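Need residues for this backbone.
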């Protein structure tokens, strides 16, 4: 399927998915694959992960989000503001091992996203994610994300597109970001290169690992190779992420995240049939 045909497909598909499907991909998918993968969640019988922000300059802590785990997969994600008011809820729906659609609700309304997988030789070769949200009367906005995989099911590139729909007329489709992923011989993600719509390199991320192949540090560099920020990761004796510390280029801590876990006991059962119930959100 050519890129031009894919773009046409996206416009049609966005209307068919209506406002029933959603996905929070731009940042969280890579994070979830790295630290909260199904293997890690299943192995440790995790049922809930709570994330907290700590701001060193303000000496203040706030709850950031909560992840509910069912059968080794993130089924619900709730985001909070500084007063612990719910800002956004995300419900993930799966078909087998693959995420099929997500429903997201925030104070602006309900956003919808659908995921379509394409297979080659029995393996997923790429997937297309469309994100549609209402911006006002007769004004819609659609985003799309095209993920390309290698034969080892590793993401090699992501193309982000933006399609604006106004009064039923299609605006120009815009490719806004390209990302390329590189791995070492062990399959560890070691570098992400990001480019803008004109193919200019805007930033690069580099990852460092321990002897146990656990991410210990991520560095964000500008195109000239100058450090923008770095994140250091800490783990418990089960190799579960417990803390991440973000430092600016002057090596001053700007944000710290802490993680707390809840685990399944023998008497507990996972509920994999959570229903999406929109809640009144704080503006």
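Answer:
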């Amino acid at each position: 399927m050519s890129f031009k045909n894919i773009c046409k497909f996206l416009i049609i598909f966005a209307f068919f998915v209506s406002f029933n499907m959603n996905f929070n991909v731009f940042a969280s998918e890579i994070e979830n694959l790295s630290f909260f993968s199904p293997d890690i969640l299943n192995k440790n019988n995790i049922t809930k992960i709570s994330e907290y922000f700590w701001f060193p300059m303000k000496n203040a802590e706030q709850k950031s989000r909560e992840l509910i785990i069912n059968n080794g997969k993130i089924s619900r994600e709730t985001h909070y503001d500084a007063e612990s008011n719910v800002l956004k809820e995300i419900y993930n729906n799966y078909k087998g091992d693959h995420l099929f659609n997500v429903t997201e609700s925030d104070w602006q309304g309900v956003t919808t996203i659908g995921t379509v997988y394409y297979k080659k030789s029995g393996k997923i070769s790429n997937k297309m994610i469309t994100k549609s949200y209402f911006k006002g009367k007769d004004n819609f906005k659609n985003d799309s994300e095209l993920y390309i995989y290698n034969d080892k099911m590793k993401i090699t590139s992501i193309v982000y597109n933006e399609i604006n729909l106004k009064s039923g007329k299609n605006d120009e489709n815009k490719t806004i970001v390209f990302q390329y992923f590189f791995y070492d011989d062990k399959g560890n993600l070691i570098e992400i290169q990001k480019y803008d719509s004109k193919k200019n390199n805007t930033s690069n991320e580099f990852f460092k690992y321990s002897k146990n192949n656990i991410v210990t540090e991520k560095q964000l560099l500008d195109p000239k190779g100058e450090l923008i920020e770095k994140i250091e990761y800490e783990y418990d004796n089960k190799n579960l992420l417990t803390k991440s510390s973000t430092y600016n280029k002057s090596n001053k801590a700007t944000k710290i995240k802490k993680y707390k876990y809840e685990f399944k006991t023998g008497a507990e059962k996972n509920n994999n049939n959570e229903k999406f119930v929109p809640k009144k959100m704080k503006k």
